[in-house]
Structure formats: structure tokens, C-alpha cells
């Protein structure tokens, strides 16, 4: 058998990858022709590739490596736990110490009486749990008709059939017969693209009141929950106007609709608090967690629920669970990750050092001819590319064409920045230093200049 290692020539690794590995969210034939970049290692905020290039990871992987790469403590905890108890489940009247310790820690960190955790291997599974959880909750309370979950267009809640249905990504719904019944989508609070002549405040209220209208149209007795990301991540780091969340909270309270905050990206320091719900001042009944929970070092996610929700669910046997719910190695690594965030005061670092510095540099990008608005909350940020800032105009080309060019220019300049349509987004590791922010911004500016040159060359402006 051929032994495949980091030391093989890049072209050989790429050829094997193209032959056997199907990449997620990728046109695989197109990638095969081009060759995927082979990532061989990482430390802090930098990735290394098979050609020895150092790439600044402006996306913390997939918004998850909050504490940065290369933390030996997590590797040591994983090894210790694998030796002691590599696997056991908590289905049939057993438990184990990593599950107990992580749950107690999450109950301590989560706001209010969000004190009970149901585990999954990631965010998609956790949101699938939420669909069954909220419906079971209302059925147990004698209101089985409360089944519909209201969500938002352009939301991302995962890739499984259930979670992708909760999500509002048109491109995902177009494949595989989604959404499943019982999910209703309202518009997103994206003022830049959809606000028209309204002020951001007026627009925020208008979008929040779509929730009330949907509840009235569908019937209060038929609606179980509303789910949303505190800051829409994969939708393009869309930050709602200030008027939005207070109105959403009022509506959920008035009509007794469970509020699910999908904290998969926003949780664990990303927005400058432990949870995005704290930053947005909302009181969810359920929070979806994953990603930063383990800083991506192990696959783990879950749903944290309030006392009353857990009490109602606990009255019955909830016929739901995953082989890897509360996996002991993942739970032990997650716990250590939370301890590092706490002991190194990474949330303080975000609040006092990294986010204020990044904000100043990021917002200054609006002096670039291609950059319309710049938005940032904590360590997640976006810029809208536009041919006309005053008109907040989209490009004449297919949405995403310019964003893709810009992403390619970033990649060529050893910066990972993602594009969502023609918005460019970042979410770097929380540990990033001001010097590293300077590198990120310098590379982003070069990429923007090169994008502008390319657009001129192709006559796309
Ligand atoms: N919810 C949100 C808000 C997410 O951003 C993601 C992943 N990007 C998910 C859910 C799905 O999580 P996973 O990929 O771990 O299944």
C-alpha cells in the first residue's frame, strides 16, 4: 500500500484528492481540474500548505478555531481521555465524567436558567434535535398543533435535511427536495441590500414585525418556535439594525413562541461575550452550540435548554439521540477549551484588544473604491463590495462573481477571507494580535486593489 504523507509532492496529493475525496459545498469537477490547496499544519492564526506558504486564516477554519491552532493542552487531554475511556454513551442509565463536567460548566456559562444540555456531533445535528425537541415540548404541554418553526431567508442552520430546511439558503433548498413541511421563512434584516429608502431603524422594525404577521397568518396555535442566528454568519455577517432584536423578543414573549438562538458561530466569545444572545440582549429558550465549544479540535455540538423546557421534556421518554452524543473525548476536549478561554481571558482580549483594533482597521476599508458598508460585531465582520456606494448598488454580473474574484485574490495573497455573494467576510481566531490584524488588513487591501484591477480589465465596473 502506498503511504500517503505530507512529504509527497503537492501534485500527487492533489491528484489523489481529486480521485477519491468529494469536497463539501464544492463543484468537484472544477476543483479537480485546478487542484485543492493542501493544508499540512497550523499554529496560532496561521496555516501552512504543502508548498511551505503561511496563510493567515481570517476565518478560523469554519468560524470555529476560537483559541487558535496548535494548542498542545487539548491534544494532551484527548490522549488522556482516549486511554481512560475512549467511548461510552449516556443512553441507558449511564453517564461519564466528561459529560457531567462539561454540562455543569455550560450551565454555569450560559445566561439565565439555560441549564441543561443535549449533545450532538455538530450544529446541524443539534438543530435537528431542536426541531423534535420543540414539537415534543408543545405536545407534552397539551398543544400538539404547535409545530411550525419560523426561520429566516438566507439563514444557515446546517446541512442535514432538517437543519437545511430550517435554514433559508435558496441554493440548498433547490437540491434534494427541501424544505420539509412545517418550516416557514420570513425575510432577513439585511438593510444594505434590502432596506431601500427606509432608515436602518425603520427597516429593522419592519423585518421583525414580519414575525408577528407570520404568527398571525399561520395561527398562534400552530407555531412552535422562531430560530435565528444572533448575527447571521454564513448569510454574509448580516448585523440586524438595533431596533430588530428587542421587537423579536417582544413578539416571542407575547405569543408564547420558543426562541431558539443558533449560537453555533456567535457562541464562545465570537461577538465579545460568551454568547451572541448576551451581545444582542435576547433571552432564548434554547441555544444551539457547536464550533467554538471545542474550538474545532473535536466534533461536538448541542442544545442548551432552559429549566422549564428540560422539565417538560423530562416528563416523557424523548426518543432521540446520537451514538456520539456527549462523546467523552470530544466533551473532555471541549471542557479544556472552555477553561483556556476563561483562564486566558480571551473574551477580555476580544473586548479590550482585538475587536476594537480590528473594528478601527476594518471600518477604514470603506475608503476603498469597491467597499460600501463595513459591519463588525466582536470578531466577525463583513464588507459589501459595490460599484456604487451611494446607491448601495449590486454589480451587473451574476451575484458572487466579484466576491469570488476577491476571494481568489485573497487566497493568492495568503489570506483566507470568504465571500458570500459579493460580501467578503472574516471571523479570525479570537487570539489574533494587533500585529496579526495589521497583516490581515494589509493583505485584504492588496486583494481589493487586485480585484479592482481585474474588474477594470474585464470591463465589469
Ligand atoms: N448553525 C450555524 C449558525 C452555522 O453557522 C453552522 C455551520 N456553519 C451550523 C449551524 C451547522 O453546524 P455543523 O456544520 O457543525 O453541522
UniProtKB/TrEMBL annotation:
The keyword Transferase applies. Belongs to the class-III pyridoxal-phosphate-dependent aminotransferase family. One of its GO terms (molecular function) is pyridoxal phosphate binding. This is Putrescine aminotransferase. It comes from Jhaorihella thermophila. Its cofactor is pyridoxal 5'-phosphate. Keywords: Aminotransferase, Pyridoxal phosphate, Transferase. NCBIfam families: PRK06105.1, PRK07480.1. InterPro entries: Aminotrans_3, Aminotrans_3_PPA_site, PyrdxlP-dep_Trfase, PyrdxlP-dep_Trfase_major, PyrdxlP-dep_Trfase_small. The lineage of its organism: Bacteria, Pseudomonadati, Pseudomonadota, Alphaproteobacteria, Rhodobacterales. The keyword NADP does not apply. Transmembrane segments: none annotated.
Amino acid at each position: 500500500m502506498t503511504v500517503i504523507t505530507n512529504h509527497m509532492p503537492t501534485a500527487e496529493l492533489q491528484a489523489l484528492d481529486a480521485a477519491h475525496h468529494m469536497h463539501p459545498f464544492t463543484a468537484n469537477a472544477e476543483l479537480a481540474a485546478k487542484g485543492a490547496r493542501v493544508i499540512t499544519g497550523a499554529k496560532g492564526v496561521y496555516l501552512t500548505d504543502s508548498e511551505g506558504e503561511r496563510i493567515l486564516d481570517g476565518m478560523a477554519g469554519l468560524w470555529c478555531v476560537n483559541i487558535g491552532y496548535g494548542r498542545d493542552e487539548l491534544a494532551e487531554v484527548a490522549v488522556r481521555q482516549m486511554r481512560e475511556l475512549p467511548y461510552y454513551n449516556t443512553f441507558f442509565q449511564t453517564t461519564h465524567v466528561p459529560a457531567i463536567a462539561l454540562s455543569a460548566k455550560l450551565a454555569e456559562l450560559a445566561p439565565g436558567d439555560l441549564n441543561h444540555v443535549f449533545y450532538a456531533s455538530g450544529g446541524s445535528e443539534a438543530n435537528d434535535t431542536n426541531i423534535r425537541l420543540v414539537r415534543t415540548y408543545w405536545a407534552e404541554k397539551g398543544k400538539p398543533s404547535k409545530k411550525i418553526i419560523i426561520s429566516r431567508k438566507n439563514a444557515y442552520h446546517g446541512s442535514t435535511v432538517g437543519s437545511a430546511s430550517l435554514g433559508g439558503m435558496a441554493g440548498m433548498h433547490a437540491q434534494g427536495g427541501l424544505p420539509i413541511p412545517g418550516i416557514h421563512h420570513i425575510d432577513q434584516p439585511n438593510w444594505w441590500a434590502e432596506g431601500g429608502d427606509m432608515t436602518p431603524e425603520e427597516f429593522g422594525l419592519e423585518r421583525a414585525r414580519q414575525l408577528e404577521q407570520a404568527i398571525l397568518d399561520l395561527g398562534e396555535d400552530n407555531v412552535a418556535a422562531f430560530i435565528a442566528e444572533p448575527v447571521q454568519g454564513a448569510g454574509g455577517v448580516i448585523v440586524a439594525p438595533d431596533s430588530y432584536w428587542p421587537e423579536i423578543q417582544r413578539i416571542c414573549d407575547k405569543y408564547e413562541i420558543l426562541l431558539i438562538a443558533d449560537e453555533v458561530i456567535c457562541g464562545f466569545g465570537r461577538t465579545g461575550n460568551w454568547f451572541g444572545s448576551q451581545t444582542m440582549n435576547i433571552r432564548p429558550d434554547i441555544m444551539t452550540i457547536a464550533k467554538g465549544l471545542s474550538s474545532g479540535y473535536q466534533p461536538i455540538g448541542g442544545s442548551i435548554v432552559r429549566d422549564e423546557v428540560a422539565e417538560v421534556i423530562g416528563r416523557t421518554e424523548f426518543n432521540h439521540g446520537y451514538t456520539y452524543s456527549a462523546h467523552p473525548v470530544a466533551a473532555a476536549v471541549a471542557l479544556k477549551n472552555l477553561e483556556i478561554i476563561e483562564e486566558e481571558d480571551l473574551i477580555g482580549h476580544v473586548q479590550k484588544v482585538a475587536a476594537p483594533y480590528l473594528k478601527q482597521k476594518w471600518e477604514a476599508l470603506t475608503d476603498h473604491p469597491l467597499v460600501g458598508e463595513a459591519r463588525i460585531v466582536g470578531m466577525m465582520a463583513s464588507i459589501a463590495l459595490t460599484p456604487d456606494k451611494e446607491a448601495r448598488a449590486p454589480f451587473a454580473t451574476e451575484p458572487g462573481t466579484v466576491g469570488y474574484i476577491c476571494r481568489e485574490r485573497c487566497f493568492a495573497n495568503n489570506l483566507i477571507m470568504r465571500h458570500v455573494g459579493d460580501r467578503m467576510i472574516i471571523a479570525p481566531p479570537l487570539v489574533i494580535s494587533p500585529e496579526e490584524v495589521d497583516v490581515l488588513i494589509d493583505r485584504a487591501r492588496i486583494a481589493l486593489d487586485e480585484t479592482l484591477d481585474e474588474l477594470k480589465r474585464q470591463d465589469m465596473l
